[in-house]
Amino acid sequence: MPRSLDEWWARRQWATGLDIPYPIGRFRDAWAPYGRLVAQFRPEKNAELLLSQIPPAADVYVLWVCAIGHEFVATPAEQRARPGATRARGDWCPVCATPSQAPPVPSKFPSPAPVPGVDRRAQALAPRARRPRPDPVAPARRAEPAPEHRGRAFHSAAASTATSATQERLRALIGERLSVELSLNALTIGQPFHGRREVWPDVLIAEFALAIEYDSVGRAGDEHVGRREHSDRRKDALLRAAGWEVIRLRQKPLRALGPHDLVVAGVSASAVDRLIDRIAEVRGALFVDAYRRSAEGAPDADRGG
User: Fold this and answer.
1) Dihedral sign for Cα atoms in the order 188, 190, 192, 193
2) Distance from C-alpha of 172 to C-alpha of 190, rounded to nearest angstrom
3) Nearest in space to 47 (alpha carbons), one of 1, 93, 6, 98
């Protein structure tokens, strides 16, 4: 018999003797094929647990929220085994699936009233006038593709000025190793992202057309997972579409999202050394070496006789 989430978690604590029977990310791979279910899960409505802490076969009641905002209760097994064409997508919702009992909405363009003396049936059966065919000699006009947007780095007053100590340490460690400009905080993009045509990465290096992000799960364990991970992926895609590359430092237990990401224990001198080496791999060692600082703090290119 399914139990409530609080009761199920308490029984798992008693059975395992652990305060956290299932750590964050334990069942991430098992839930990976069900992206829609991940989007329907809300930690704040489920005892502050993450979906990656709940086994897909757990006999427990979970509260889900569909894309429209309807809340409903179902076990993970029920959600994964919904019948019908929407099973693979996992976007089932009992409210959305129930046919509406409201009367049909009247058409915006109602049928015209009958005109006396006009045979509507004969008029409907009458042949319609054909449209003139285009001139076969004239070349067909093709729509011009939209020009590609090239991202421009700048200082945005709309960007948040509140930065964490971790972000400041990351910026300082990069500045100790590379002679680059680190004061810019925004980049223009071709499509809106959360209502704006600009994004605010943690660190921008215009010399390399490179954005650097630092991701952690946060104190509540809900940062950069679930829907927020989808937002990170879209942000990366917009940056790359604007001609910039992205490198994310992902704190354990997070996993890499992109081909150049690094999984680290935290922001440290060794982690930033790995980051500089990764930048050299992405943008070219000879090019990046020209911006490296010497042990005394001057660029290597200025150390000649």
Assistant:
1) negative
2) 30
3) 6
DSSP character at residue 275: H
Closest by CA to 262, choosing from 276, 243, 272, 248, is 248
Q: Which domains does the chain have, with CATH numbers?
A: 5-95 (no CATH), 153-302 (3.40.960)
Q: How far apart are alpha carbons 34 and 16 in whole angstroms?
A: 28
Q: Point out which residues pair with 212 in neighbouring strands.
A: 203, 247
Using an 8 Å Cβ cutoff, are 6 and 47 in contact? yes
Residue tagged 């994004």 (tokens): 199
**Residue closest to 50 by CA, chosen among 275, 218, 288, 294:** 218
Q: Which amino acid is at 273?
A: D
What does the pLDDT look like over 277-304, one tens digit per residue? Answer: 999 999 999 999 999 997 655 565 444 4
Q: How far apart are CA 7 and CA 13, in angstroms?
A: 10
**Token digits of residue 287:** 């090019």
**Opening angle at CA 242, ends 256 and 32, nearest 5:** 30
Spatial separation of the C-alpha atoms in residues 256 and 43, rounded to whole Å: 22
Q: Identify the CA nearest to 23 among candidates 51, 47, 2, 53.
A: 53
What are the tens digits of pLDDT across the range 153-162? Answer: 999 888 877 6
What single-letter amino acid sits at 163? T
CA dihedral (280, 283, 284, 290) positive or negative: negative
Distances in Å between the alpha carbon of 303 and those of 5, 181, 292, 294, 296?
Answer: 63, 20, 11, 8, 10
Give the separation between CA 55 and CA 186, rounded to whole angstroms: 40
The pTM of this model reads: 0.52
Structural tokens at position 63: 């509260």
